Amino acid sequence: MVERRVCTFCGIEIEPGTGRMYIKKDGVVYNFCTSKCFKNMVILGRVPRRTTWTEYYAREKQIRMKGLPAEEAAPKARKVKKAEAKPKEEAKEPEKKPEEKAAEKADKPKAEEKKPQEKAPQKKAPAKKPEGAKKTEKPKPKPEAKPKEGEES
């Protein structure tokens, strides 16, 4: 089976039988899809992350903008909700007698009445302005009363 290669500069997949392989003196192997990528990296010494038309630039931009690279942003598998779980839980609870239900209903209004009383005393004090603060708003001038057509002044 043919090995899939990716361009070292732009990040595009190289078709088998095309492209150029460049090996540096220190043994690092670079694969290039076109002469454009070869010239930009080897001859001109450009960095792929700073060249706008490369895949590496697009990934860096996504990280800056969203915080997630494109590969990790793939849709996740959704969890299947179990409709049977709710009926089982309800079946486990013992049925309450009508007397107990009435007692619970009587307790609920008492609890609701206490809540508003507790909240009423707690009021926030308005924020105080510093003494040296100047008023920026000027009072609007009142429009002069225009006499009506039938009335004289």
Number of helices: 4
At the first level of CATH, the class of the domain at 5-65 is Mainly Beta
Shape: flat
**Mean pLDDT level:** 75
Order of helices and strands: EEEEHHHH
CATH architecture verdict of the domain at 5-65: Roll
Tell me the strand order in the biggest sheet: 1-2
Provide the structure class. mainly alpha
pLDDT below 50 for ≥5 consecutive residues: which ranges? none
CATH fold-level label of the domain at 5-65: Ribosomal Protein L24e, Chain: T
Q: Report, as a whole number of angstroms, the end-to-end distance.
A: 104 Å
Q: Per DSSP, what share of the residues sits in E-state strands of 2 or more residues?
A: 5-15%
| CATH-assigned homologous superfamily of the domain at 5-65 | Ribosomal protein L24
Helix content: 25-40%
Number of strands: 4
Largest sheet: 2 strands, antiparallel
Report Rg.
38 Å
